[in-house]
Amino acid sequence: MALRIPLVAPEIRDSIRDFLYLESLALDERRFRDWLSAFAEDARYEIPVRVTREKLAEWELSPTSRIFDDTKQTLEFRVERLETDFAWSEQPPSRTRHYITNVLVEPTDKADEFRVHSNCLVYRSRGDEPNPSIFSAQRKDLLRRAGDSWQIVHRWAAIDQSLINAHNLSIFI
Amino acid sequence: MALRIPLVAPEIRDSIRDFLYLESLALDERRFRDWLSAFAEDARYEIPVRVTREKLAEWELSPTSRIFDDTKQTLEFRVERLETDFAWSEQPPSRTRHYITNVLVEPTDKADEFRVHSNCLVYRSRGDEPNPSIFSAQRKDLLRRAGDSWQIVHRWAAIDQSLINAHNLSIFI
Amino acid sequence: MALRIPLVAPEIRDSIRDFLYLESLALDERRFRDWLSAFAEDARYEIPVRVTREKLAEWELSPTSRIFDDTKQTLEFRVERLETDFAWSEQPPSRTRHYITNVLVEPTDKADEFRVHSNCLVYRSRGDEPNPSIFSAQRKDLLRRAGDSWQIVHRWAAIDQSLINAHNLSIFI
Amino acid sequence: MAMPGVSAGVEQMLREMREGVPEGRVPARIFNDREIYELELERVFGKAWCFLAHESEIPRPGDYVTRYIGNNNIIVARDEKGEIHAHLNMCRHRGNMMCKSEMGNASHFRCSYHGWVYKNSGELIGVPYFNEAYERKLQRKDWGLVKVRIDSYGGLIFGTLDPDAESLADYLGGFQFYLDIYLKQGLGGSEVHGPPDHWVAETDWKICAENFSGDGYHTPVAHQFGFHLGYFASSGATHSKGWAVHIPGKGHGIGLGHTPGMPPFFGYPDELVKQMHESLSPGQLELFSKTRTAVGNVFPNLSFLIQPLSLEPGDPGVRFCTMRLYHPVGPGRMEMWSWCLVPKDAPQEYKEAAYKAYTLAFGQAGTFEQDDFENWIKVTKMTGSTLARGVDFPYIQGLDREPLKDFPGPGYAVEPYVTEDNFRNLWSTWVRYMMEGE
Amino acid sequence: MAMPGVSAGVEQMLREMREGVPEGRVPARIFNDREIYELELERVFGKAWCFLAHESEIPRPGDYVTRYIGNNNIIVARDEKGEIHAHLNMCRHRGNMMCKSEMGNASHFRCSYHGWVYKNSGELIGVPYFNEAYERKLQRKDWGLVKVRIDSYGGLIFGTLDPDAESLADYLGGFQFYLDIYLKQGLGGSEVHGPPDHWVAETDWKICAENFSGDGYHTPVAHQFGFHLGYFASSGATHSKGWAVHIPGKGHGIGLGHTPGMPPFFGYPDELVKQMHESLSPGQLELFSKTRTAVGNVFPNLSFLIQPLSLEPGDPGVRFCTMRLYHPVGPGRMEMWSWCLVPKDAPQEYKEAAYKAYTLAFGQAGTFEQDDFENWIKVTKMTGSTLARGVDFPYIQGLDREPLKDFPGPGYAVEPYVTEDNFRNLWSTWVRYMMEGE
Amino acid sequence: MAMPGVSAGVEQMLREMREGVPEGRVPARIFNDREIYELELERVFGKAWCFLAHESEIPRPGDYVTRYIGNNNIIVARDEKGEIHAHLNMCRHRGNMMCKSEMGNASHFRCSYHGWVYKNSGELIGVPYFNEAYERKLQRKDWGLVKVRIDSYGGLIFGTLDPDAESLADYLGGFQFYLDIYLKQGLGGSEVHGPPDHWVAETDWKICAENFSGDGYHTPVAHQFGFHLGYFASSGATHSKGWAVHIPGKGHGIGLGHTPGMPPFFGYPDELVKQMHESLSPGQLELFSKTRTAVGNVFPNLSFLIQPLSLEPGDPGVRFCTMRLYHPVGPGRMEMWSWCLVPKDAPQEYKEAAYKAYTLAFGQAGTFEQDDFENWIKVTKMTGSTLARGVDFPYIQGLDREPLKDFPGPGYAVEPYVTEDNFRNLWSTWVRYMMEGE
Ligand code: FES
Ligand code: FES
Ligand code: FES
Ligand SMILES: [Fe+3]
Ligand SMILES: [Fe+3]
Ligand SMILES: [Fe+3]
Q1: Per-residue confidence at A2, pLDDT binned at 50, 70, 90?
Q2: Are F75 and F190 contained in the same domain?
Q3: Which among B43, C112, D51, F375 has the fewest CB atoms less than 10 Å away?
């Protein structure tokens, strides 16, 4: 029945879920170097551009356009930038909170890699602006076991808007 | 102490929680037939009308008025409609994300049925409208064991608004 | 690696998580006396004032200013007030929903006390106002074992805004 | 000549509209414009008879509901003697809101700011520190709640902010004949099934008002799924059949859709039909028994619909009745209030079935309602653009048709059901209100 | 005769208000109207002395805070010499915001767009590519930050956008005597306990300003829980007792509530009371020692309150002092800024106790504050409706009372505490500003 | 004399601006003002040639995209014959939106309200109940979609709402020479890499338009991190070097930044450079080969940028090309549309590398874009305040410089890159549009 996917051992599911919480805590506490360390050397970080299409369109997430199209190297470029005093978009810093829910863990054909589904609601507030930005995203990550913790091999997050209601995306999802 | 309810075995709680995640994934991926299959043949789906009342009013959720008052048959009516090319309210489709949190599972007097409390925040975005609709609901479901998965016997969801800030409810909660 | 904190036994983590869900259910169902009973006699309840500061400022959460600066006694003052017919700010009552996610439990040097991290999104709707207030907060609680349940020794919640978009805070986080 | 407080552009548009409507032209701009909205609050909602509540919503002494006329929040209360009163829900001392709930029961209202107390019939009876602060000089009788003039028909309570408005009976001007199809379902008449559900939509209230003045034209397309899946007892081939009636100069209009070959009053339980032979007049019986769909609007913003919905593809279905109010809250923005009216004396199981059919078709999650609002928010969006300001829409259907002779009911009646006569009457009435006094 | 840039309707309303206030009438409309709001930005907040900051918020050289006057964001900075300056927080090159934080410490401000650099005293001292781009032709001295005129009293820094405004001393016009109850708590005077908390409310700032000009009338009802549960040292029977004082023509007003039988300065620690015998004048001592509640407003939008709060039902409680600013951000919309002022030289445990009492009673989660704002948003909502536009509120309390002879302080003083004299002065001052120059 | 429908204040400001721009003064107020915004919709976006789409976005018959001119939603469709058409995306019957998607493929559009059907070339061809409802009297040919006049250059499709507007070629007035640097990357020209990403920003569109008219001045500061970390092939010392060109009276402007010592066309693959020796004219080659940064704007709101980005600190980097549209949606509010243009005939790996560089630098998450918008929302916020209304900004850079003799391209060209000549031309053009007809 389509509402059943092969799920994994409770310890693995729980450990992965805790890892995702730790990852988002690093982001929300602006420990960007810690956050980087959650990514494998061969990691990709992708946020596709969403387009409003009719119901049966072949795609809604552009196969060619991306908002983020990063490797670990370019993520490091971004983090390095945030560490300068000239990253104006984050000066003063955004206040973010990542709400990670609906975590589902699927096995892959590699014993040490797992496909992880999660919903990610990001609350972001800046300065004295009373209206926060709220981003909703579906995430599909590929995680790889790294010792007794995990690494992100692929972070794929699709934002649930085609016209995004924020003046920039100087944060991570 | 009132903050303790008899809770159930961890496997059951986790399995039910995963089931709710799988159910909402079906909705958010618009696999409406899959979603229907989550309901028992004798299922009811109810969303009562909420009224702003004084603190001690006998009720805030109308005993007679409902936004949804469905059986599995009428849910199928709705799904069948969504499958046509003329369901304008979902053409282009809404982008929804169901954030399921605070899942608590209580035993009932039937060994194979459980009362499940959850909070459900629904993010919904349409077209190039930059402001999404955000629905907050308290859910109380009755779930029944079905083989090694579950079925919804009763979905009860109360939206936390009396004047709802959306032009329609062409989605499910 | 900075993304690893010493985590606790699954039963403890799950039991604490369920306790937090039960606590917020008491709030959302306005069982304020039940909610009070979740606090230890020596409990503190604190919400610091947040200030928009440059990236490297010594603090963003004021060391001296607080929105809530309560003991169990003053929380009881507030609850007692809510029980009168003259608590106009909650007449009619707010409709709240507490979304508790990202729960991480750390041991402390006391065997029966645990440091609990959680994200708390509070949805609040009043009257026929179509726009709800949405509060985002990082919580760091200190919980103490109390029989087969728990008590809050310290509730610390930092709201992720410096200019808060609500006419009052007549609710709890 | 110039209309005070009206911009040259809007005045010009209204003048042209007044000329254009009889020739079948209505400007797109009226459906989404801030100035039009503000003018409407004053000239339409400040003058017309506006729906407040159904008597069955406040059955007992002390019952009240809070409603709106324009942007004015109104308390509609039944006093201890059973008499109904309407007042602005605002304390006369400093303007606090008196009743903060949508409904309740109270003999008195006490203000939460300084404690002035009013009877539910509006009199000010309690003033704290009357001696110390007022030295007994405040004239209590001068400071009651602001009264709103009301009147009712068939359980419908209307109010008007205009003390000089004509009587409600004159205002309805014969439309009562048609309202009875909704209000006299059976001997006991109709009652609300429960409180309305209401929601906000980025829609101009007038788009809904026009649609429910008898837009049978949209049904086969906007609600195509119903035809396609067999849940609606009509077919594209015959859907235009039936009648359209309006009350000239009053703005009220109704469309009566007819499906050939369907039994009289199909979708109602037999015993209810029997009752209607007593509750309705012969002329009403003749007309209503042939009616599949009755979709009507009382100017400005109160609508009704009776229609069957099939739960099994192809079967005639169960008939339900909905009452709806389009409450303007901004340019191109409204609150929708939707009730289900059930026959008081019908069997409980029919009431339940009718209510289920209503929720499946109308109300915020109703499958017909959903599609209507999706279209309406788009109309609103598009008509707000600068290019749309130069555009007129065609309203020429039935432009030179003759009204029907010896039609059983009052007003201007035409065939077929699908026509735009009612809309022209709606818009010429609206523009008259908008240009009032000039 | 017509007021330039003012609609006929608003001008008419203001004229009638000018006549009506002395007779005890104020129009509801002023509390929620877009045109009134925009006019206020220009005529009230563009002319009056407006509060910026307390000196204790920027104690060290280089300290700055960013504040607002009307919708203008202002940097208030202490330069290296310790002198305080206020400037519009806008780069003169292309208008970028200079300081994006609420507070900080900097000797220079560098613009993040093109890099112009200003001293915290406002002078432009750095211009990139001065040779290549400007050929040295830009006159740096002409392009400093836009200066805002400031002056201070008792640690309160005020600014005005009107170069021709009277001096702050004249503007306060004797109200200093009463401000001292808040500013001279003990020998060291008062200081902020920490940064203010601030929040947005759908409230018109004037409702708050009136309330804090001495609305003792609302307390037993709006804050009834405090009386009911014994957390507030007053009783309905005696609550009207005390005095109300205002500065005619200036708009400032204060209410001084008195509870019979309470010890002088109850709720303060003894040593602080001892200090106040030095910090205050005999007249002040006589008056303030009898004062339970001191609730005052400096025109237009700065308020103060001293009041005791009991943590145990029935005990006299702890006295706290709050300072609040009502910052308008739209029609019927404001930002509330709330500080706690503590006596610099009081024992730390008293400061902590006073602050705890403050947070329990005021600030966004304060139990008194909560109820005030709930009432105020409702007043704002109701006064924005079309029917409210025709409504006046009664302001007749104390209309024909004589001012007190030989009252220890300046201004127009009356008995009892509960009266509306202060409000009439507030509104006649406000309407004079609004009609300025006509 | 008075400008109809314009307030005295704004008219006065525009008159002073018309005088001030040639002397180097521009009023802050134009960057955040409701009245200016509404006037722009009519006078700038209702008159100018506005960008709609790039031909490569609708390559096949039936392809369409929906875009905006001002607040008008426009369908840009390629018909079955391959011809491109633009129409207001509004049904002529009642104003419903025809295409609710951003892109798609359809030969016909069917309205979801009453079912009218139009060809993608705009003709009305289907009207339900044409006999029964319209008695065949509706003239279909009169009720096609509202046509928008279009023309194109180098793949760029522009539309104008003004039937009397000059031709696109005259409108561009020679700027085509410079546009070729973006549009003729290689023999196959440029194509979009995919659909644009777009987002909302509390920014006035004109701030972006000015910036991209050649604001080399901001780069070393606003994007200081790039210089600091070595990701951008320029240095503060030499950054002012290069040229600025504009088309007098047309408003178009471009800045061409030059980095001494860099190889010609650095950052492009060799084979692409080879192609450009064919696709470009000698004059273009001479100029473009020396260009590090080409940042230009077509009046009013279409911009382009070519620039290299280094992924390894210090290396010359990869050259990418972005096209951007600033779509106004309110006072101080816009939608940003950002495309990446890639050379059709370049190797796939270069296209990918260029796109990656684009996303890292521009687009909503681009590190350069992020900082620009952070500055721009702050400029917008500050210029909306009452004090800012009295403030002019200085635009004196290069005020008395002579244009370059024998510059290879058309228009008014000056040295260095960092100057404000282009901006003065932008603003004098803008104010002419705003005062049109008076
Ligand atoms: S506002 Fe109602 S008593 Fe004052
Ligand atoms: S805006 Fe400040 S330097 Fe240009
Ligand atoms: S609105 Fe398009 S057919 Fe009626
Ligand atoms: Fe319909
Ligand atoms: Fe109060
Ligand atoms: Fe830039």
Answers
A1: low
A2: no
A3: C112
Contact D367 B68 (CB under 8 A): no
DSSP string, chain C: -TT------HHHHHHHHHHHHHHHHHHHTT-HHHHHTTEEEEEEEEEEEE----TT-S-SEEEEEEEEEEEHHHHHHHHHHHTSS--GGGSSPPEEEEEEEEEEEEE-SSTTEEEEEEEEEEEEE-TT-SS-EEEEEEEEEEEEEETTEEEEEEEEEEES-SEESSS---S--
Which residues, chain by chain, have CB under 5 Å from ion ligand 6?
A: F 372
Taking CA–CA distances from B130, the nearest residue in chain F reads: F200
Summarised one tens digit per residue, pLDDT across range A36-72 is: 999 999 999 999 999 999 999 999 999 999 999 999 9
* CATH number of residue D102's parent domain: 2.102.10.10
Which tokens hold the place of D201? Answer: 């939509």
**Which of E119, E153, E187 corresponds to the end of one domain?**
E153
The pLDDT of residue D384 is above 70: yes
Which tens digit of pLDDT belongs to each residue from F119-169? 999 999 999 999 999 999 999 999 999 999 999 999 999 999 999 999 999
Residues D301 and D266 in one domain: yes
**The predicted structure's pLDDT at residue B1:** 45
Distance CA E18, CA E21 (A): 6
Find chain F residues with C-beta within 8 A of A80's C-beta. 229
Average pLDDT over residues C40-50: 98
Task: With respect to residue D18, please indicate whether it lies within any of the assigned structural domains.
Answer: no
Same-domain status, E364 and E263:
yes
Task: Determine the distance in angstroms separating the CA of D66 from the nearest CA of chain C, rounded to an integer.
Answer: 11
Domain boundary among F87, F122, F153: F153
C1 CB neighbours in chain A (<8 A) are 37, 149
Token digits of residue F112? 């979801």
Numbered residues of chain B with Cβ closer than 8 Å to any chain A Cβ: 10-11, 14, 18-19, 21-26, 28, 31, 33-34, 37-38, 85, 90-93, 95-101, 121, 123, 125, 127-132, 134, 148-149
Domain that holds residue E71: 50-153
What pairs with residue F341 in β-bridges? Answer: F192, F321
Give a yes or no: residue E105 inside a domain: yes
Residue among D85, D47, D67 nearest D163 (CA): D47
Burial class (CB in 10 A: 0-12, 13-18, 19+), A8: middle
Q: How far apart are CA D105 and CA D99, in angstroms?
A: 10
If asked whether residues E254 and E285 sit together in one domain, one would say yes
In tens, the pLDDT along A92-124 reads 999 999 999 999 999 999 999 999 999 999 999
**CATH number of the CATH domain containing E345:** 3.90.380.10
Neighbours of F12 (CB within 10 A): 11
- Tokens 């924020």 locate to A166
Rounded CA gap, D184 and C167, in Å?
47
Together in a domain, D209 and D357: yes
Contact across the interface for B91 and F200, Cβ inside 8 Å: no
Per DSSP, the three-state class of F47 is coil
Q: How many domains does chain E have?
A: 2
ipTM: 0.97
Instruction: Give how far the C-alpha of residue D163 lies from the chain's centroid of Cα atoms, to the nearest Å.
Output: 21
Q: Is residue F112 part of a domain?
A: yes
Q: Which ligand is nearest to the CA of E322?
A: 5
Does residue D86 form part of some domain? yes
